[in-house]
Amino acid sequence: MNILVIDGQGGSLGKQLIAQLRKALPDQTVTAVGTNSIATTVMLKAGADTGATGENPVLVASARADLILGPIGIIIADALCGEITPAMATAVGKSQAKKILVPVNKCNCVVAGTSDLPLAKYIESAVSKTVELLKAE
Questions:
Q1: Could you read off the pLDDT of 1-17 as tens digits, one per residue?
Q2: Where are the domains of the chain?
């Protein structure tokens, strides 16, 4: 299974996702794609197998992924304070990969119906869902 983690800004959410994925699924391949080089570097340091930066890597990696994780903004054009281009959001949205999205209420994006939990709890939930999906296959 090809797991793709996409993040932007400082890469903190992606870093936490990758660190927990490494603990829960040490043998799975994890690719990190950052919308900027800082996010990519942070995710690689967290344990991603490979990484790339920018719009085209998001387009290519989304098409090849079996599972995509990241903040909910990766499916919304101009989210992450403008770092997600319309092409990126479309590529992630159109990807046949299953998507596990972390609700982040920032940058004018509010997810109704979510509890006001610490980010760490949302990340635990995302990793737990990933493990469930992999076990089901």
A1: 899 999 999 999 999 99
A2: 2-136
CB proximity list for 100: less than 8 A, separation 6 or greater: 67, 68, 69, 126, 129, 130, 133
Residues in CB range of 104: below 8 A, 6 or more apart = 13, 71, 72, 73, 111, 119, 122
Length of the chain: 137
Q: For helices 55-64 and 86-94, what crossing angle results, to 10°?
A: 0
Angle, helices 12-24/37-45, rounded to nearest 10 degrees? 20
Claim: this prediction has a pTM higher than 0.90: yes
In the CATH hierarchy, which fold is given to the domain comprising 2-136?
A: Rossmann fold (3.40.50)
